[in-house]
Amino acid sequence: MKNLESKEVWEPYLDKWGLLVQGPETNHDGGDSAHRFGLLCFLLIYSRTVRGNTPWGETIYMWYGRCMEQYHLDFGRMRRHPDPSKWYSNWRTTSRDQMNMLQAAMFAMEDAALYETTLKRIFEVNNGFHDNVTPNYDENKDIVKTPDVVTPSQLSKFARMKKTKWAYFILDWFLIIDLILAWLDDVQCKKEGGRTDYYTMLIVDLLATKMYPALDTVPAKIARLLFNRTDGLNAVKWIFTRTSEPPLWKYAEEAWNG
User: What is the torsional sign of CA 90, 91, 96, 102?
Assistant: First the structure.
């Protein structure tokens, strides 16, 4: 496999908007674009911060800015992808999984202002719950799903940006609970012939805790050790190898093992 820090590896998965999407086999589907972009952006900056590499040179910062302009509709409302002809341009379909990865990119880029804007919207408008609907193609209307509550890890990353140690120290204990929930969900998913996507979110949350050594905590270290005792990396691989996806699972695996 080519060097995953080379931009040419990812270019086949960039659409006319310059956003990360699935490959040509799915006609460059953008339903998970925000999630994939956030994960890649986080991993690229993680490599700079932790490994001392410089993937994509200075263009990574311009790419982040151009992409966020398209994902961010207004006042903290984020969307999966801006294509107006697709269901996923509706900002109300932006689930917690999508938002968490976008916020991971904001964390990596130290974009505290935008991060704060997204959190303010969630708490001031929705009392701490993410907007979340899914399209009903038969009736051409949206189905309101059970809303996702903001996770402690979403708050923990923001607390790290603000250097509020007491807050992220307390919130990091919930990573251990997250690991238990991910393991339980994965057990059930395996029975049904699949794997949980919980670990995909969790691996980013755990990598974020060691991005800056001065901001690391005891509960975060315990959670990372426990993750190594799970089958989490294989679950992440399963999620990203079912369809024509960019090789994000491999890049995440390199970051974790590196």
Answer: positive
What pLDDT band is residue 137 in, cutting at 50, 70 and 90? Answer: low
Confidence of residue 155 (pLDDT cuts 50, 70, 90): very high
Spatial contact of 18 and 10, defined as CB atoms under 8 Å apart: no
The end-to-end CA distance of the chain, in Å, is 17
Q: In this structure, are residues 13 and 246 in contact, taking their beta carbons and an 8 Å threshold?
A: yes
pTM equals 0.95
Buried b (16+ CB within 10 A) or exposed e, 31-49: bbbbbbbbbbbbbbbbbee
Q: How far apart are CA 132 and CA 112, in angstroms?
A: 24
The pLDDT tens digits for 109-124 are 999 999 999 999 999 8
Backbone angle region of 241, left / alpha / beta, with phi > 0 → left and psi within -120 to 50 → alpha: alpha
Find the mean pLDDT for residues 206-212. Answer: 96
Q: Half-sphere exposure of residue 97, counting CA atoms within 13 Å on the CB side?
A: 13
Q: How far is 129 from 153, CA to CA, in rounded Å?
A: 14
The token pair at 136 is 């009903």
How many angstroms separate the CA atoms of 197 and 100, rounded?
13
3-state secondary structure of 143: strand
Average pLDDT, the chain: 93
Per-residue confidence (pLDDT) for residue 94, from 0 to 100: 92
